[in-house]
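Standup notes
- DV: blocked on the single-chain target, sequence here:
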Amino acid sequence: MEYIYRAKIKEVKDFEETSANCIVVNSFSSSIKMIDKIFFSYGLILTIKNLIKILSKKRILVTVLHEDKIVSFCWLNLGFCKYYPIEPNSVVIGPVWTDENYRKQGFATSLLKAALVFMKNDTDTDFVYIDTSEQNLSMQSVIKKCGFGEPISSFEL
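- DV (later): unblocked, structure below
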């Protein structure tokens, strides 16, 4: 079972700067600046797929760099979700991923906070959604730290 969380972006609190190096990749120029890190982390095929997603203008990549390596990332899916209906001008965050060697160090929390600040300040987003599995207690904790309340619904994959 997957839990769905929802927040009104204007009600998301302002977070203080984090020590993590969070980078939003939402354009061709920002993609070019990050291409070596994306390639180093994912190889040629996934780099090409990721660039296509970014250039489609329907997805934004948010990353955390640590020692010049992408250690955590999430996608911001603009206006669509393949698992449940959302309102126009909404964003679904996901998937969220952190390298297993860097988990439990606050990178996912920093990543999610940076994504929320970006959406609040640089987009016309009304609502933001995120979902996670019933078993992923770590992600549920991160979601709550970032100001989401209890799940509003659930679905089966």
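- Follow-up: DSSP finds three helices and seven strands in the chain.
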